[in-house]
């Protein structure tokens, strides 16, 4: 299989319009366009009955104590964990692309709905947890929301876009299911996969 994420090249920075936030010299960061990029794939193997699309950042800090705190940094050596930015499953077998802005076009306070959309079924991304303590932003964040790594993080973050070809029409997931739920449900059903990785930082020193 092959995947193309328009505007994102392997190992290169993700453009600001596809991010949740962009750097700001005075405020550290400002909210961005938060548009999902166009994702196109082909070369699916025979027997493909649906696709799943995940975007994960494996560089999320496991300890948020110093995240976005003045006078502090998030050290590069701090242990990291996965943070899912896009969870979309049960994409019909005939679909070969998600258009730019189709799943996200702007930051939506309190999130977007999960469940059935035109090209699949949305799960909840990890902003659902990250923003749970913010009274103005807390909610369930369905579909795509772009990069917003800590502005004081010493580590460059990586965002892995992966499309999976599956041998089932549905993974049987509903409600506010999450990235790890998809990984578990796909076990034994993956025929092929393709990925591209972009990078992003809000730290001018990285």
Provide the structure class.
Answer: mainly beta
**Main beta sheet: strand number and arrangement?**
6 strands, antiparallel
Give the name of the CATH superfamily: PEBP-like
Beta-strand level of the residues, as a percent range?
25-35%
Low-confidence stretches: none
Overall CATH architecture: Alpha-Beta Complex
Number of domains: 1
* SSE run: EEEEEEEEEHEHE
Sum up the overall morphology in one term. globular
CATH topology, which one? Phosphatidylethanolamine-binding Protein
Specify the helix fraction band: under 10%
How many helix segments? Answer: 2
| Spatial strand order of the main sheet | 8-9-6-5-10-11
Kindly report how far apart the N and C termini lie: 33 Å
**How many DSSP E strands?**
11
Radius of gyration: 17 Å
Report the CATH C-level class: Alpha Beta
Protein name: PBP family phospholipid-binding protein
Region (Disordered): 99-119
InterPro entries: PEBP (IPR008914), PEBP-like_sf (IPR036610), YbhB_YbcL/LppC-like (IPR005247)
Organism: Alloalcanivorax profundimaris
Description:
The chain has 206 residues and is mainly beta. The chain has one domain: PEBP-like (Phosphatidylethanolamine-binding Protein). It contains two helices and eleven strands, in the order βββββββββαβαβ. It has helices spanning 127-130, 179-186, and strands at 2-5, 21-24, 28-31, 39-42, 50-61, 80-92, 97-98, 115-117, 120-122, 157-166, 190-200. The strands form three sheets. Strands 8-9-6-5-10-11 form a six-stranded antiparallel sheet. It is globular. The mean pLDDT is 97.
